[in-house]
């Protein structure tokens, strides 16, 4: 059976983490989206996986219309883009939940393909976020990651080292199905000049 590699990115977590890389301040840093997309797509099993879902979600303040070029760049790299509006100075709402729903939907799609036969082998879910918060009792990336692994999927957790949740580190240490990767190891390639 063919195996797919599904990529889900929490844009704000990765973008803000990149801004704090060198000095701990919010220095302006631009990510090389093409390089990041290629890195995440390359796979951990020698490129044997076919491209699956590729989704990035984020938000923008209604006063920052200049983000349109960024989202178009992601679309050009083959990603579906979900952007929620937020009031200036306010935090994100529903971005995490959107990604959770997309990952669960991906799992349901595979159940429809194979039924409940876990011997068939599972796709890889690539989650790009360091967020390990409990999310106020709502769905969280940590609970989602645990569930994905229980279902038998391989899981790759990508994040900047300084943004990675301790919960994600523990999950990777506790399961051979989970690989925690640091974007920092590819920093020279990921930061645009």
Q: Which percent band covers the strand fraction?
A: 15-25%
| Secondary structure tally, helices | 7
Give start-end ranges of low-pLDDT stretches.
none
- Dominant shape: globular
Number of strands: 6
> How would you spell out the order of helices and strands?
EHHEHEHEHEHEH
| Largest sheet composition | 6 strands, parallel
Overall pLDDT level: 82
Question: What Rg, in angstroms, do the CA atoms define?
Answer: 16 Å
Structural class by SSE content = alpha/beta
Query: What spatial order of strands do you see in the largest sheet?
Result: 3-2-1-4-5-6
Report on this structure.
It is a single chain. With 193 residues, this protein is α/β, with parallel strands linked by helices. The protein has helices spanning 11-19, 33-41, 68-76, 95-114, 141-150, 166-173, 187-190, and strands at 4-10, 50-61, 80-86, 124-128, 154-159, 178-182. The N and C termini lie far apart (41 Å). The model has no long low-confidence stretch (mean pLDDT 82).
Provide keyphrases for this structure.
single chain; 193 residues; alpha/beta; 6-stranded parallel β-sheet; 7 helices; 6 strands
């Amino acid at each position: 059976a063919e195996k797919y590699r599904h990529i889900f990115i929490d844009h704000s977590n990765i973008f803000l983490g990149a801004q704090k890389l060198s000095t701990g301040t919010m220095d302006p840093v631009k990510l090389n989206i093409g390089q990041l997309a290629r890195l995440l797509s390359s796979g951990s099993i020698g490129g044997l996986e076919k491209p699956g879902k590729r989704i990035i979600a984020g938000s923008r303040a209604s006063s920052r219309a200049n983000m349109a070029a960024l989202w178009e760049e992601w679309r050009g790299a083959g990603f579906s883009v979900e952007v929620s509006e937020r009031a200036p100075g306010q935090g994100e709402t529903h971005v995490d939940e959107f990604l959770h729903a997309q990952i669960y939907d991906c799992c349901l799609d595979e159940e429809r393909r194979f039924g409940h036969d876990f011997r068939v082998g599972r796709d890889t879910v690539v989650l790009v976020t360091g967020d390990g918060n409990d999310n106020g009792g709502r769905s969280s990336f940590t609970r989602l990651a645990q569930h994905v692994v229980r279902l038998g999927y391989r899981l790759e957790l990508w994040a900047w080292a300084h943004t990675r949740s301790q919960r994600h580190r523990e999950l990777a240490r506790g399961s051979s199905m989970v690989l925690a990767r640091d974007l920092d190891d590819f920093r020279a390639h990921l930061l645009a000049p």
